[in-house]
Amino acid sequence: MSGTDVPWGDLVREATSWRTRLAHVSSSWPLTIPRIGADDAAIAAAQARIGFELDAQHEALLREINGWPDAFLEGTVLGTDEIGAGELWERAWVHLDTASDYFDELPPLEELVPICVSDVVLDTSAVWMNGPVTDGGFPVIRMTSTDSDEFENVHAWWRECVQTTRDLVALDVEKNGITE
Fold first, then answer.
1. Measured CA distances, 31 to 34, 67, 71, 74, 105 (Å)
2. What residues contact 21, with CB distance under 8 A and at least 6 apart?
3. How many CB atoms lie within 10 A of CB 120?
4. Considering the entire predicted model, what is its pTM?
5. Which bin fits 67, alpha (ψ -120 to 50), beta or left (φ > 0)?
6. Of 108, 6, 110, 18, nearest to 68 (Cα)?
7. Which residues have C-beta within 8 Å of that of residue 73, sequence separation ≥ 6?
8. Distance of CA 127 to the CA centre of its chain
9. SS3 assignment, position 128
10. Counts for the chain of helices (H) and strands (E), in that order
11. How far, in Å, CA of 167 to CA of 161, rounded?
12. Bridge partners of 72?
């Protein structure tokens, strides 16, 4: 079964489970939980602010969770209130502007919609709205201060973020000699 066959509810439960374990094994990562999913009005308001429709997979994720503070380490998954407005949105654009100075292979900034941003380090993920569609979703580009990665779509990006959380749990368990 591909990641796009797995309902967002299941993917979010898996992420929540691993994020809870991370908070349990490391005091460096306090527990955070996703917000309740967005409704039609919230989706429409976000789309109005950015001037076009959201990626289908991103919209489906927002309907399941309307953002998640510090979901993936310091990365906050933006909710509909943060798409197109606010401090996190502005921070994402500062990150994207900075990254575009260092990475020649990035798509044009006007084709990107930020979906996750760190408030601690240079780390932003954005949907590339003119990229090739895979399984009904546009690619996600993740930019940090040292590199950039491309994922086939929001599902693939989400699965990689969960895997990073799992890896950090395993590292902290081993480092601290914790028995789960």
1. 10, 15, 9, 12, 35
2. 169, 180
3. 9
4. 0.92
5. left
6. 18
7. 29, 118, 164, 165, 168
8. 10
9. strand
10. 5, 6
11. 10
12. 75
As beta bridge partners, residue 142 has 125, 149
Range of the domain at 26: 3-176
Q: Which amino acid is at 72?
A: F
pLDDT per position in the chain (180 positions), as tens?
A: 445 679 999 999 999 999 999 999 888 889 999 999 999 999 999 999 999 999 999 999 999 999 999 998 889 999 999 999 999 999 999 999 998 888 888 899 999 999 999 988 889 999 999 999 999 999 999 998 888 899 999 999 999 999 999 998 888 777 766 665
Domain at 94, CATH number: 3.40.1580.10
Number of compact structural domains in the chain: 1
Cβ count near 5 (within 10 Å): 9
Q: How many CB atoms lie within 10 A of CB 13?
A: 13
Structure tokens at 142: 């993740």
Tokens for 123, please give them.
Answer: 């780390």
With beta carbons less than 8 A apart as the criterion, state whether 107 and 130 touch. yes
